[in-house]
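User: Structure tokens for this complex, please. No commentary.
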Amino acid sequence: MHVLRHAPHGTIYSYEGVEMILIMATYEQDISVVFIGDGVYALKKGQDTSAIGTKGFAKTFKAFDGYDVEKLYVDQLSLEERGLREDDLVVDIEVVSSGKIGELMHEQDVIIHH
Amino acid sequence: MNIGILVKEGPYNHQASDTAYMFAVAAIKRGHRVDAVFLYNDGVLNVTKLMDPPQDDRHISSRWAQFSLKHNTRIYACVVASKRRGISDDIVIEGADITGLGTFTEIATRNDRLLTFG
Amino acid sequence: MLHTVNKSPFGNNTLETCIRFAAPGDPILLIEDGVYAVQAANRFASLIETILKTNPLFALQPDLTARGISMIASGVTTVDYEGFVELVEQHRVNSWL
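Assistant:
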């Protein structure tokens, strides 16, 4: 399981996290991705980094399907705290409670936070 | 037990590499095997032999080189993260290799535990 | 599952986030700047007390010593690096960064 917890442009963690997820997916790992805290901002619609000189990657999440990365979960409280709703996000994603994410974490052999 | 370690922050700026090292030493002491250390994000900067800290400070890359030699632990820096940060084969310490995330995938799956320091 | 937290609670919400997802009974180990959470009489004292009702809480002694922290919240167990390894022997690890 990969956990994205950083906002997308101020630091590289989410971006390199996504790179890691896509490569690991090609090795046919059973991958799930969870967005918690500022990590949910990576999914926000309407991002345009052209004026800040960094590489945007919000579109990459739309390609996850093609890599068979289909288990995507976003933490409900993190979304709510940021005044975001499901239709503010670039992909269809399951919005789940922290209890549910906690259960999923418990099933994992390996968890990597980005 | 076989242990894999992932280090996600660079040397000196963060304690991550130091904690990873102290943990690895303690793991060996308790009879475990540290299979590999994988470096990601700024973590790749931990294996440049160009670092030259003041005499009275620890030399982080040399320390990993010695650990690698003594305990037969390979140290891998992610190639994409390395290229981004100017880390190449000719400037990394003995015992370290620049490699792809496929190697990390193997480390994450073949070991009993994976710990992340960052 | 063992959870590790390495950020100061004064600058970062990692500890609060971690406990929101940790299962009851999961041990939580504070390392690096994470150990500032358990310095006695700080503003996280009641949070620490609440955590201890459901989860065992550990702090890495070398990190406490390095930071000059000698008085810690009661109920928190200190471990050295080998104690850290022992916890890892017993649990898979979720390293919150």
